[in-house]
Amino acid sequence: MRLLMQTEFRAIVHSEYGAPEKILKIAKRQLNSEELGADDVLVKVIARPIHPGDIQILSALPQGGPVEPIPEGTLRVPGFEGVGTIVRLGTNAKAAKRFSEGQRVAFFPAKGTWGEYVVVRHNCLLPVPDEISDHIAAQMLINTITASVLIKAGHNWLKAPITLPVYILQNAAASGVGRLLTQVALDRGVRPIRLVRSNQSAERLRSALPGPPVFSTSDSNWKKQVREALGGYKLEVAFDAIGGKAIDDLAEVIDDGGTIINFGSLGSNMGTNIYSLAPNNIALKSVSIMSWFRLTEDEKQKDFELALSLATNHPELFEVAHEYEFADFQKAIQHVSSPGKTGIVLLKSPI
């Protein structure tokens, strides 16, 4: 099927990796008349989130994963997630049954969502009902998938036989993934204990999402508070999104033979003292969203359905820090790393 449109659109692009303020620019791109692949769908992007991981990739930081080379003379468009409306479908009959032109969809994974248009495989699309706002739809897939990957990893590292109640400890609990991990855990009968890095953040989280205990690691006695919250029960799994010394601290709290599951480095990926794990025979496990790509299509669709359920029933989990105009992308990027930020930073396209 040929694209019937010939139009210019804007995209945020880079030809090399480095500091985002130096390498990124807005460039005009051309929607050409090349055929869409049978499984492809052309989507006009309404809004997309800017995740810390996006900036890590742009900056070629180790925590961003392997650097994908940019061929000489070409430009890369960042971004993997967002919400938009379908402009044109490929020829896949299954896609035609599920989707239609003009339909609003969330999408992940997609390459180049920091453009005003993006081509996405049809099995990476999720129809968005009217009751879910663009603000939520734009951000609901990556973080939910990450939370799902984490809860599965945590379950796999519990020692058999599993005896209830099961407690987990999670730092960076006020983050987008942290909030969703808490809810997924609660829905599965797991009892989370939440850690944040300041008393102010603790108060905000207790107010916004009441329920499981919240402690600030800025308090000198937070480890004692965690042990008291356990009420004598064991703590076998802790989730870390900060890295560095945060892992050492978790190792002091978790029970003998437990596991720390790291999935990020909001603080630093340097400075962990491997010997801090030894006294309690602690295992350190690294998990990333990349493991999700090895799942079957049915398993992936279940995680899409989970995202839809959470977005429908718990919209408060999807907080937005601020929404920026497309041309203000540098301000948006700076906001992502600003101290005290809560919620997801969104970048919208012109209507």
Task: Provide keyphrases for this structure.
globular; Quinone Oxidoreductase, Chain A, domain 1; 351 residues; 15 strands; alpha/beta; six-stranded parallel sheet; 11 helices; Rossmann fold
Short account of what is shown:
By secondary structure, this protein is an alpha/beta fold. The chain contains 11 helices and 15 strands.
Helix content: 25-40%
Write out the CATH superfamily name of the largest domain.
Medium-chain alcohol dehydrogenases, catalytic domain
Instruction: Classify the beta-strand content into a percent band.
Output: 15-25%
Morphology call? globular
Query: How many individual domains?
Result: 2
CATH topology of the largest domain: Quinone Oxidoreductase, Chain A, domain 1
Report the total helices: 11
Mean pLDDT: 93
Q: Architecture of the largest domain in CATH?
A: Alpha-Beta Complex
| First-last Cα distance | 26 Å
Uncertain segments of ≥5 residues (pLDDT<50)? none
How much is the radius of gyration in Å?
21 Å
Count of individual beta strands: 15
What summary fits the major beta sheet? Answer: 7 strands, mixed
Q: Which structural class do the helices and strands define?
A: alpha/beta
The succession of helices and strands, N to C, reads EHEEHEHEEEHHEHEHEHEHEEHEHE
CATH class of the largest domain: Alpha Beta
Structure in words:
With 351 residues, this protein is of the alpha/beta class. It has 2 domains: 7-140 and 318-348, Quinone Oxidoreductase, Chain A, domain 1; 143-290, Rossmann fold, CATH 3.40.50.720. It is 29% helix and 24% strand. The protein has helices spanning 20-23, 52-58, 93-98, 134-137, 142-156, 176-187, 199-208, 222-230, 245-253, 297-313, 329-336; strands at 7-13, 25-31, 40-50, 82-89, 104-107, 117-121, 125-127, 167-170, 191-196, 214-216, 235-240, 259-262, 283-286, 320-325, 344-348. Strands 3, 4, 5, 6, 7, 14 and 15 form a 7-stranded mixed β-sheet that branches. A 6-stranded parallel β-sheet has the order 10-9-8-11-12-13, sandwiched between helices. Strand 9, helix 7 and strand 10 form a beta-alpha-beta unit. The longest helix is centred in the C-terminal third of the chain and has 17 residues, at 297-313. It is globular and about 65 Å long.
